[in-house]
Input
Amino acid sequence: MEQILLGAVSLGLLWSIMTLGVYISYRILDVADLSVEGSITLGAAICAGMITAGGNPVLALLIAFIGGMGAGLVTGLLHTKLGIPALLSGILTMIALYSVNLRVMGVSNVSLLRMPTVYTLIGELLGTSKTVSIMIAGSLVAFALVFILYWFFGTEIGSAIRATGNNPHMVRAQGINTDTAIILGLMLANGLVALSGGLIAQSQNYADVQMGVGSIVIGLASLIIGEVLFGRHGFKSRLLSMVFGAITYRIIIALVLRLGMPADDLKLFTAITVALALSLPRFSAYLDTIKASLKGGRRHA
Amino acid sequence: MLKITGLTKVFNPGTINEKIALDQVDLHLRPGDFVSVIGGNGAGKSTLLNCVAGVYRQEAGSILLDGQRLDRLPEHKRAKHLGRVFQDPLMGTAADMEIQENLALAARRGGFRGLSWGVTASEKAEFHTRLAALGLGLEERMSVKVRLLSGGQRQALTLLMAILKTPKLLLLDEHTAALDPKTARAVLALSDRFISDLGLTCMMVTHNMRDAIAYGNRLIMMSQGRIILDVNGEDKRQLTVEQLIHLFSSRSGEQVNNDRMLLG
Output
């Protein structure tokens, strides 16, 4: 059981980087960006391709981040410059990336068994087990990113991106190019998602062209869990809540699997959870109406 | 300073819903002109402002600001020269950002935005003074999200943001129409104070004939996409609401059928 929990926490840390990316597109930019499904695999594919070719696993992560930014750039250009709705732009990039990812990997599944990864490097350096190495690398990257994102969104450019997601009219009236702001935000978001994909591939010792399927829903589930359970006061606590949300999601999944839910039903379970969480405001409004009418009814009776 | 020549804007051209919103409008503003723009619904007042601001591209004509072709620039580049306040108090500010963050965005209008801190300490001190001058107590709430402000407070903030970096031209698009009468008067008085203190050139769209007469040194009346009346100086000072109504019906061939124009 302890092993399962440790595994869930370490996996959650790696996925939290993806959740931070989803937070940028979905919450800050107010764009439901589906290209993340492709860019998480792109990050994995780049790492797998580079490591099997004898490349440095750390450098591979950097290239994965840059590759993801490229994917975000494509989605951003489709949306802003060509006027394609954001949702469709993301889907187009996601579909295109499927072919790109196959090209990068050469085959649909690349094994990294017995090859150097960031975790084996840490293991050699500190003599830690693989799970502990993953936790070290994961928390190092996740918390460094929280710090960097907190700084970035406090800068002039970061403020412009936040304002664009909030009120594009006002932003243009203040002399900010909303197209550029959206593109920059999507690049950053997809860069983080690809970085996360690279870290995940290195931890599970393979990259698979299908691994991104449903990842947006996992990202949203983690995001909502984070927002509901952990701080919503202040930007820093909201970023941190993404990390804890992703970890909590993994723990929940580990527990329901332990309780005997078939792994094949996992995506259905996640989708239902997210649907329920997203519809919560509606439900509570509906309940309020019922309560109010019940009260009113009693008074008249 | 602002020179509009033959400005024509058509919505839905070539369709059954085609509407000529601006029909060969010529307008020349002198530096320091404070023009109130009145007219009925659909007269083209807001369209005129939005064409200057770059929200719409015109079908024909040109807009020059200090000799520069404004109409060739995208909206965000025109913003360098323009301060804008909108009818909807929600439109001029970012609701989920702090008061000081909104002001900091406005302080960088037309300037470079890099990786320096979004709100600096010296700016905070300046914003504190500027907000205190509004007399709304906002200077004590600088890190409060704008969402929590009332419509009047948001509109006063938007106005301050519009003039924080002195604009060449201030565009007020019915900016008091959505406010209650008392708040509307306060925001209007504040606008007037800023305009005279800074010597701004301003176009103010209003539905309210009384405000149009009371404020500004010049008044233009629009109907069906044309300017049908343009008075300034002493002639404008002598105007009364009755005269305006008479002028409106004689020049436009329409009756004043808008309660807001009459009663405001």
Summary: The mean pLDDT of chain A is 94.
